[in-house]
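Open question from group meeting: does this chain pack into something compact, or does most of it stay loose? Before anyone orders reagents, we agreed to write out a predicted structure and look at it together. Recording both the input and the output here so the notebook holds the full record.
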Amino acid sequence: MNLSLKRIDVDAPVHRQSGSALPIVMFFAAIGLITVFTYLVHQFSFSRASLRSPASLQALLNARSGIYKSLYLLIDSTATDTFKTISTLDSAFGADMFGDVTDTLSPNSDKPQFDGTPVTYTLFENDTPAFGECEVTLEPSGGIFSIRSTGRFRTFERTVTAVIGSRVPALPDTIVICRNTYPWERTPSNGTVVSVEETKLVNSSWYHQLNDRYLTVLSESDTFLLDPPLVIQSSHDVHKIDSVVQGPLLIDGTQMNLVWKDTGTVVIKGDLQITGDAQVEGITFVVAGEIKILDEAKVLHSGLFTRSRLFIGDQSTFEGNALAMHSITIYGKASVTGRSSLIAGSTRSTGANVSSDSLRFSILISEEASVDAVCIAVETPGSIKTDEGTTISGILWAQHLVCHRGRMAGLICAARVVDCDNPEQMVNSATSGIAALPEDSTGVKKDSTLTPTTTQLQNTIPGLIEPLAEIAQYHLPFFIGRLSIISWKEE
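Structure tokens returned:
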């Protein structure tokens, strides 16, 4: 047998099966490249956010500065500051850091207006526009107003909204602040009674600007011809209500349950009446005529303005801010809840036919009504009356008289507290009790309009009153006292 054998050349190179090393090198190089690229992207994103953060912060600081500058311009510039002025020229303070600095908070700057007109402030006059600016807008709502400041820097915008009012100038154990030195016929057994002499009670200019804000809205849509009453009897009909109603508006929930939740402002050229089982929430009503909330109606988280009178009666409920240029009457088993704000009174004629009793009191709380609110009576007639059976929690602040006959927890502030069933105590009710009256030989101040046979005026509270530990949670309107920041929100 012949076998064919292949000759093997021992000098020929040997081919191995392990392959080339280049793919392995490329694989690990790709992994390294991906790792480095991911790291660089992460670092770039982090550094980009770090670069954006200072710009956004500068816009926020500009917005904050707009709030404080507005307050500075609104507050009387003649008021004394309680803090000692620090001179930047003091070498110990580091004057070389500031150079030639111009005071940008000049009282002659444009003050923000209560008509909602935006005002732009340049905060850095020497470096404009290097560090941006801010735009400020004032929006009044009842006894408070909000300052909305939008700060700008480069392409960034930040907004700060501050709610402005006045804080209660009393401790929780204070129950009465009288602006006279008359003797007391019967001093309340609980709490502290304080006598003070105030020279400036109300900033009338601000109060009139607040009214003018609403009156301007009414005049912008003024018409000589009024439409027939618009009657809304179901939730499906609320879409018929336009932003301006050229006539009376009747929201009638007597036939079926009616719920209307919305936002915005509705201007009504006639009267507004809400009756039956109706619930209205979140809407501001600016009304030329009277406002009546009756039956079991509920008006919650809403704002009311009437050029005439406001009635809250029967078993209705109100929560929000109400301003009436004539008077506010709460009766029946009606309730005002949620630390609301009720403001009434004006020197301007409203043209409404009123009774003699409502002429003597701007706010009347009667029957079994309950009120958790700050009740403010200013200008004419500027007085408050509460009847027996009423329950009040909060503040009764009157420019003239307060006749309290119900039960109350909170604070009363008035020129004089009286018993309105005593005719002798109602003498000269519009002016008596104001401070700075002439003194007799004994040093006791008396009313110069009284005859020698008239009984000396006194302070008295026929009803019951006790301290309220949560009195600091209530706030006075911005036109009474010194402006204070009530709340602060940054966006």
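Observations to bring back to the group:
The chain has a mean pLDDT of 81.
The radius of gyration is 35 Å.
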